[in-house]
Write a structure and sequence with these properties.
Layout lengths: L1 E4 L7 H6 L4 E4 H4 L6 H10 L3 E4 L3 H9 L6 E5 L5 H21 L1 E6 L3 E5 L5
Parallel strand pairs: 1-2, 1-3, 3-4, 4-5
Antiparallel strand pairs: 5-6
């Protein structure tokens, strides 16, 4: 899968996901560090990447946009260690891959996984 990691996530997450065979780009390496969220979403969309973040603003932007892509993975967990985030994503990717391919917001919390298909209606 192709991922774009938001700047609020550690760059140490990149090799952890790459080692599992994924194409991973960090916002810092793309020249969008400090940029506006709209530009980050647009890059994910045009480059065919799933945006991975812990910033809930992206979910709101996607809901207002009314589009099916890009998909978004949100980490809403207490443990923000890159190793924990990689284990969470990789350990659950098979379960959520179809949703991410179709367009969804996938939220990982301490206790569960919430999936909301895009576009969000009403």
């Amino acid at each position: 899968m192709r991922f774009l990691l938001d700047e609020c996530l550690s760059q140490r997450l990149v090799p952890l996901l790459e080692e599992a065979g994924h194409d991973v780009l960090h916002v810092v390496d793309s020249g969008l560090a400090g940029g506006i969220d709209h530009d980050v979403l647009e890059m994910a969309r045009t480059d065919g990447r799933v945006l991975v973040s812990s910033d809930t603003d992206f979910g709101e932007l996607l809901a207002r946009a009314g589009t099916a892509l890009p998909s978004l993975v949100l980490f809403r967990q207490g443990n923000r260690a890159p190793e924990h985030q990689a284990a969470t994503l990789l350990g659950n990717l098979e379960q959520v891959a179809e949703d991410l391919d179709a367009g969804a917001i996938v939220v990982f919390t301490n206790d569960n996984i919430r999936i909301r298909r895009l576009p969000i209606q009403g």
